[in-house]
Amino acid sequence: MKNSCAEIQAQVAERVLEITINRPQRKNALTMAMYSAMAELLNSAAGDAEVRAVVISGTQGAFTSGNDLTDFLGGSASGTESPVFQFMAALYDFPKPVVAAINGPAVGIGTTMLLHCDMAFAGSDAMFQMPFVNLGLCPEYASSYFLPRMVGHAKASELLLLGKRFGADEAVAMGICNAAVPADEALDRARAAATEMAGRAPEAVRLTKQLLRRGTRATGMEVIRNEAGHFQERLASEEFREAATAFMEKRPADFSRFE
Ligand code: COA
Questions:
Q1: I need a surface site. Which of 29, 43, 82, 256 has the fewest CB within 10 A?
Q2: Parallel, antiparallel, or unpaired: how do β-strands 179-181 and 16-21 relate?
Q3: Would you say the pTM of this structure is higher than 0.85?
Q4: Does ligand 1 have an atom closer than 6 angstroms to the CB of 30?
Q5: Residues contacting 88, CB < 8 A, separation 6+
Q6: What is the pLDDT of residues 29-79, one digit of tens each?
Q7: What is the number of the ligand 1 atom nearest to the C-alpha of 134?
Q8: Residue range 72-112, pLDDT digits in tens
Q9: Cα(52) to centroid(ligand 1), Å
Q10: Across the strands, what pairs with 170?
Q11: Buried-exposed string 116-146: b where 16+ CB fall within 10 A, e elsewhere
């Protein structure tokens, strides 16, 4: 399948499109070009009868470390016109099943995109985190809406206010992933589920996905837009600048001077 970005690989086998995030030197951190490439792939697969399901995975022991922080520090947009938003919308509206295979870090959007996949398999080495507050940012991709619905208010607050890391078993317990599996089996399990769904009656599969999401779809998109506005503002904040600079300088962030 055609793709404009070397760090996003795509291939179709048995009517399953496999999208592989491949930027291991940065733990698969996502740049604007990578978001655009993934959005293009999903948008073209949506209308392609040769694709009936999608698998998203990373490479070399990482799913994705989330947004590239250097990109964000450099002023890259995340508002509704940005490649980030185009990717979010493409996945959110994608009409066919999407299955994720997670190994290693799944940070930021690496975790929140799972809320919009249909199934996910976590290797025993998976590490999930939504460190938005730790970075002076705020929740994105409707995590402030879907997480409390899935895990309750107290747990969602813990995950979003403390930005706590969690592993495969907890992700399964919270309903973010279907199963925790040995690290070297996550991709095979995701492929097997996607291939199985690709063999089912395609219209029935699409309708079932649509019905499963009907109750939350419109509000979820409204929340995604609202959060994106706040997120964009937070990227310009001194709090984010301190947090991202601290990450690059490999030191703890110091928020003591902020009011
Ligand atoms: N953006 C830019 N660079 C990133 C990155 C990101 N999101 N995540 C990792 N990198 C870089 C690191 O700076 C490091 O670069 P270096 O080799 O020049 O020092 C390299 O990728 C490897 O990362 P490292 O931190 O050494 O790997 P690790 O296995 O110890 O930890 C993570 C992996 C993902 C837990 C850790 O890198 C991390 O927390 N990254 C930031 C995640 C984040 O905050 N994302 C944004 C969410 S909105």
A1: 256
A2: unpaired
A3: yes
A4: no
A5: 109, 113, 116, 140, 141, 224, 228
A6: 999 999 999 999 999 999 999 999 999 999 999 999 999 999 988 877 767
A7: 44
A8: 888 777 677 899 999 999 999 999 999 999 999 999 999 99
A9: 33
A10: none
A11: bbbbbbbbebbbbbbbbbbbbbbbbbbbbbb
